[in-house]
Amino acid sequence: MHISTIFVASLAPLFALAAPQFGGPFDSGSSGETQSSTASAPTPALISATTAIVTVTGTGSVAPSSTSATYTTVLSSSGAATASGSPAPPADVSIANNMELIGELLLAAKAPDRINLVPNDASFKFDFDNPPDKTMTTGKGGHTVRADRQSFPPLIGTGVSMTIGFLGPCGFNTPHTHPRSSEINVVVQGTLETEFILENGARIIHNTLGTHQMTVFPQGALHTEFNPNCDDAMFVAGFASEDPGVQSIAQTYFGLDPDVIEAATGNDFTFEGEDVDKFRNLIPANVALGVESCLKKCQIK
């Protein structure tokens, strides 16, 4: 039995309630017969209630039940009933970075209110290959695309978000933290070397992940991902927050006051071009060697 037929059968009680409106009993189809209707047309409310009660055949065609054949309707993407046999095409409305809508969604009293505030069905789809503005972080080694509550407002109220990383050969997602969420990271293409350390006193956790293998980075843990091969790698990162946040350690650290950096590192230098070699000496040896060996192996200059 087709799964849609099972679904329709499960809604038989609704038709049992609707039958008096049609002047005859509801027949679930077990006898192959249905009494003809002689009563007046059903009310608009009943039409809407029975709109979804159709049997989808194995070929994908839609066959309405005989009790509602005269009044077959479908719901358009906006929720309005139409006489067409297919939903009206959704309008092309981009809601990414729409701060007015985001504010309304954050203040919505109930989940259905949030759903109704989103303009159309297409707004519930996020395209990582063609993302909205302000969602991509790009460097020489690849890029990441994030879907959070700002770039994908339908996430508001769900408590989740996602990032996809596209790392080229020797691509290195530099050490960073997510202050408001743990992360589950699954490799969907290639290989990744991953490391994280939770806090002072905890040991460093290192793993090599192949395709369809996963690791976890606890909330606030310093972590990194590195593609050690000459082929592209891709990972999918899921978060238990609509706004997990990110802090790139090296970039933010060297944005501090020079006196603070000097006191913390015990080195008397400013971070200028001539200090690159000194800076690289501060990177853990295993990471620096891994990066250098990969660049040499892949002949990347």
Structural account:
There is one protein chain. The chain has 301 residues and is α+β, with helices and mostly antiparallel strands. 24% of the residues lie in helices and 23% in strands. It has a 6-stranded antiparallel sheet with strand order 5-6-7-14-9-12, with no helix packed on it. The longest helix has 13 residues, at 285-297. It is globular and about 55 Å long. Mean pLDDT is 73; it is low at 3-9, 12-92 and 283-289.
For this structure, the quaternary state is single chain
The N- and C-terminal alpha carbons lie at a distance of 60 Å
Can you count the beta strands? Answer: 15
Gyration radius from CA atoms, angstroms:
28 Å
Low-confidence stretches: 3-9, 12-92, 283-289
Strand content bin = 15-25%
Order of helices and strands: HHHEEEEHHEEEEEEEEEEEHHHH
Biggest sheet strand order reads 5-6-7-14-9-12
Shape: globular
The overall average pLDDT, rounded, is 73
Structural class, from secondary structure content? alpha+beta
Helical percentage: 10-25%
Quick one: biggest sheet?
A: 6 strands, antiparallel
Features:
six-stranded antiparallel sheet, alpha+beta, 15 strands, 301 residues, 23% strand, five-stranded antiparallel sheet, disordered N terminus
